[in-house]
Amino acid sequence: MERPVKSIHGEWTSRWAFILAATGSAVGLGNIWKFPYITGENGGGAFVIVYLACIAIIGIPLMMSEILIGRRGRQNPINTLATIAKEENRSPHWRWLGAMGVLTGFLILSYYSVIAGQAMAYVPRAFAGVFEGVTADGAISIHKAIVSDPERLLAWHTLFMLMTMAVVVRGVQKGLEKSVRIIMPLLFIILLMLVAYGFNTGAPFHQSVDFLFATDFSKLTHTGVLTAMGHAFFTLSLGMGAIMVYGSYLPQKTSILKVSVTIALMDTTVALLAGLAIFPLVFANGLEPGAGPSLIFETLPIAFGHMAGGQWFGGFFFMLLVFAAWSSGISLVEPIVVWLVEIRDITRLRATVYAGSIIWLLGLLTIFSFNIGMTWTLFGMTMFELLDYLTANIMLPLGGLLIAIFAGWTMKRSSTVDELGMGDGWLYSVWRTLARYITPFAIVIIFANLIGVLN
Ligand code: PHE
Q1: With a 6 A CB cut-off, is 108 part of the ligand 1 pocket?
Q2: Among the four 87, 160, 439, 455, which has the fewest Cβ within 10 Å?
Q3: What parts of the sequence cross the membrane (predicted)?
């Protein structure tokens, strides 16, 4: 197997197209739905610090590793790893790492799409003023009415999957790139509007800044640390091949270091801004920051229902969530589609239909977790909670660990110097040290800590 010089699927038209697309992948439900609620559940400040440290120490070097592997192999994650391993005279079994990534994509999108569907269901409701003057019980019952009805959830999940497939089917330039060029600017405008509003609520803004940045490490648990690390992977879309495949469309001369830092910064900024837009509302209305996954769907609407212009604010907020989820959903299917096209030699249309249908079907597990299957639990978790825990806290960090080992140990120094294209100076050495030692070490320690090996 020779290493292709170009991906058969196309190439981004510029460095910025790649940055937008990868940021679109990174910025998603993770930033706006998940980050605020896990921060709330884990007590705020100290959790945020661990998360930021994970982004810097594990996230950025790993993003560089994934992009460099992707651009060097220029195929689906499985063939990419196999081709590079062969070229480096290493075991062909590295392909299994790619396979795990493709599988992770299936699993994540299956529940991701259902949550995005809920956000979509909220857009017309918010604009129509359904939340006006709503009480806590009222907000819960509006949410319950949606999630307790499998048919409704299925309808929104189907719509989200169709929207995602409609983009992916059009290919790299006409689909992926074109969509993020529209989605991302809109997303930033809406977000800034919302933060400005949160800022104007006065005192609670400071309270939120305190909540997000005060460092009370006594509130941090082992699970909290694992959650922070898992979230760093999830939010940057690392450890499953999405960024690898996006990297396979990257022009040869682009600096991998610069794009990685830019993407990580933008993603982190959005998460923090989302926190600064959401927590002032939570505090101003005396609501509970640790409400869990329903923070966005049950707590926030109460705030929207009691503020001037809340109808618009709420409507735009859920629109923001849908846009963010859309550009991430695209990147979750892309690796699967590319893989199907390459191994089955079928058209992109067919591959998208196959991948989309399977994910759509898998989504039923999550849908049922909120209603008829609420009691189907394993290890005390519903199917949805299990999928989330398994993918975000285990599969992505494990994938990330192996990707770091592949880039740091399996590939020859000369190959990574060549692909990163930033010379062999101190900057390169920093990356290599992080990829070889620090990233794997940090991931292993956090895993070991969780299983209790260290206590
Ligand atoms: N990064 C996305 C988010 O934060 C989720 C995602 C994970 C997308 C893995 C692609 C791959 O919502």
Answers
A1: yes
A2: 455
A3: 12-33, 45-64, 96-115, 153-172, 184-205, 225-247, 259-283, 316-341, 353-374, 394-412, 433-454
